[in-house]
Structure formats: C-alpha cells, structure tokens
Amino acid sequence: MSETLDRVATIDLNADAGEGFDSAELFRWISSASVACGGHAGDEVTMRATLALARASGVAVGAHPGYADRERFGRVETGESARVLATSLGDQVERLRSIAAESGVAVAYVKPHGALYHRLTYDAEAAHAVVAAIAEVDPELAVVGFPRSELLAAARAAGLVAVAEGFCDRRYSAAGVLVPRSEKEAHLGGEGAVAQAVALARGDAVVVEPEARRAGGADGADRSAGRPAIRTLCLHSDSPGAAGLARAVRQGLEREGLRVEPFVDRARVAAIPEIHVVGAAIVEGGRVLLTRRGPAMAMAGKWEFPGGKVEAGEAPAAALAREVAEELGVAIEVVPGAPLGRGSALVEGRRILLEVHLARRRSNAAPRLTEHDALGWFAADELAPLDWPEADLPILPALARALADASR
Q1: Residue 31: pLDDT above 80?
Q2: Largest CB tally within 10 Å, which of 105, 138, 168, 249?
Q3: Residues spanned by CATH 3.90.79.10 within the chain?
Q4: Which residues pair with 283 in a beta bridge?
Q5: What does the alpha-carbon distance between residue 86 and residue 365 come to, in Å, rounded to a whole number?
Q6: What's the fold here for domain 5-268?
Q7: What three-state secondary structure class fits 327?
Q8: CATH 3.20.20.370, the chain: domain bounds
Q9: For 295, which DSSP code?
Q10: Could you tell me which CATH number the domain at 274-407 has?
C-alpha cells in the first residue's frame, strides 16, 4: 500500500443509469453515472431523479446518448448518416446539460450507448462527426469509449479527453473482444465479474476491437508509472442484481489496493463530506488490535493526527505506529509493504474512506484496551457486533485472514 492516498492507483466504476433500473443502493458503490438522455431511454422525470441520486452520492455524471430507438433499447444499428447522428447526439447531451444545470449538477463526460457505442468504435466518419458535436456543446467534456477506437482517436485529435473503458459484466472472448449479447455466455456476474474488473484495472486483461481501423498501444496507458490502460469500468444497471454486483466489484477492487473514484475533474462532481479513517493494526497471539482515526484528519504535505503530530521527516505510517505505541504503552514498528487493506462506503450522505496499515508489536507487555467509542481500540472478537459505517468495508475479511494467519 502506498503511504499516501494520492499515490494509490485509482479506477473509476461507472454504471449506465437513468434507464429505469436505478436504485440508491447502486449509487452507494459506483463513482460515475452515465445518464440516458432521451434517445434509447430517459425523459425529464428520469433524468432529474437520476441526477438527484448522483448529487446525493457524490457521483460524477456523464451523458449517455443513443439511437432514438426505444423499442429496441438502442441496441440495434439503425444506419443513420453521420450528420443526422451528430445532430441527435448533440441535442441529447445538451438536454441533459440543461436539466443538470437546474439540478445543480455538472455533466462531465459523454459515453454513447449500445449499438451507437459499437459503431463509433470502427466508423471514423461518424466518430469525427459525433466528437465535433460534443465539442460544440462543451469542449471540456471527456469522451468514453472502447480502447483503440475511432471515437477515442477522434476525441484526442479534437483536443478532448479520451477515456478508455472496460466492462465488468460482459464476457470477453479469447481474442479480447466482447462476446455478442445474443450468445448465452455473454454476461458475467459474481466472482467472475469481480476477477475481470480487477484484471482490467490492473492492465492484466487484453482488450482488442478488431473492427477498429487503428492499432497500437492501449489508450491511456502509462506502464512505467503503473497506471492501468483502462480508466473506467462499466457495469449495466439493467443486469440482474446490479447493486449487489456493484458492491462486490468495488470491494474486490479495493481489496486489491485500488481506490475507486471518478476519472473526471473533482470540480465537476457534486461535493459530499468525505471522512478519512486511517488506522494501524497489530496482529499478535491470535488477536487483531486496530486503532482508527477520524474526521479531523487532514493532508497537506503531511498527515496530522488528532492527539498527535508527524515529526519532521517522519512517514505517515511511522507516525501512526508511534502514536499507537504511545497509547498502548508498547513498542511497535511498521511492517513495510504489508497492508491489511482499504475500503469505502457511502453512509448517510458521507463517503467513508478507510485505510489500514499493518504494524507489529515488539513488546511482550499486555496491550491496554480502551473503549472503542472513545478511542477506537478493540479486540478482534469485537469486530462483528460493532455498529459503525466501516463494518460494510472490505477491510473486515482482510482482518479475518490476518487473524487466522496469526493463530497458526
């Protein structure tokens, strides 16, 4: 785990929204919502409702225009000319922007839907026409599409931000292309979707679109810095159990040390309170002791802890370990490269971010535990009954594994 949140690899988790399948539970776990804006689905009522959910959840908003073919949900190619297509798309994006402005929400990106998305992967003429329409509406809008697509190439050529996307809940063939929806094995769920999301985010999965006329390296990749080629992952709100899948995917990503957050400029995301809870855990003698630090934590070149401070040149994790040692009256040390995990959850309009470092006791002195509601210390057997937001976070399975390892 990195020693600061800013140095941790990030990935966006988006869902197609405003199509009649949204729920507040889904919005707890995603970081971006691609809102249908009147083409394949959506109207003023659904747009306003979806924007309200996004604002309350601190979720980034994008426009999700598609073919104006509600009967077939925009998933069948219509063959519209590039000019007609561009006009329709521009109108849909502008309509959402207008309603979003009234709702106090900024639209940050455009992601085409269904058959239109796939056409813009290989149709250069249509892709350039669509990008021109997007730029005319707002040149600050980012464009989301398939890696190596004509759409992303046109966006870059026009000076727009191009964002490569992978799919959690759609199966890829061995050749790296999406399996057609008409095939039985086209959809992924459960552990398969989680594993695929992690592979895509890590850059371990090959994604290719052979119909694209361009070839070359993956869009957005910076392997030397460890950045994933895929900057956003999509799951579909109309998939069965979408909210549960979103939760599983997000927690799976966070267990792997990835932080889920919007890829867009934070200035375009509705601000909600964020509480960083950073702690250190001591594993010894079949028990896990955990300290947590809450709302007053700040970061400005260094981390400052309530009731303590970072000494000159001291690493944050070391400062946390020192503070833990002072509270317990024992000597401990940070174990480099041995994190227990990180996680997040949306709780009562607040985003809770949890990060836990692993520490090791060097003293045989018995730890002095204090009440968890006062200072946040507790023994492993107290984890389950605690009624606090972090109880939903993926750190708990990691603590359980650490406990089991310590007991061997």
Answers
A1: yes
A2: 168
A3: 274-407
A4: 288
A5: 71
A6: TIM Barrel (3.20.20)
A7: helix
A8: 5-268
A9: T
A10: 3.90.79.10
Placement of tokens 């890696």 in the chain: 147
Q: What pTM was estimated for this model as a whole?
A: 0.78
The sign of the dihedral angle between the CA atoms of 30, 24, 343, 61 is positive
Token pair listed for 69: 């073919």
Annotate 46-113 with DSSP letters as a single string: HHHHHHHHHHHHT-EEEEE---S-GGGTT-S-----HHHHHHHHHHHHHHHHHHHHHTT--EEEE---
Element (H, E) at 316: helix 316-328
Given pLDDT bands bounded at 50, 70 and 90, which one contains residue 176? confident
Question: What is the three-class DSSP state of 194?
Answer: helix
Q: Which two tokens stand for residue 117?
A: 């998305």
**Tokens representing residue 62 in the block:** 């994008």
pLDDT tens by residue, 245-270: 999 999 889 888 888 999 998 888 98
Tell me: the pLDDT tens digits for 134-157? 999 999 999 999 998 999 999 999
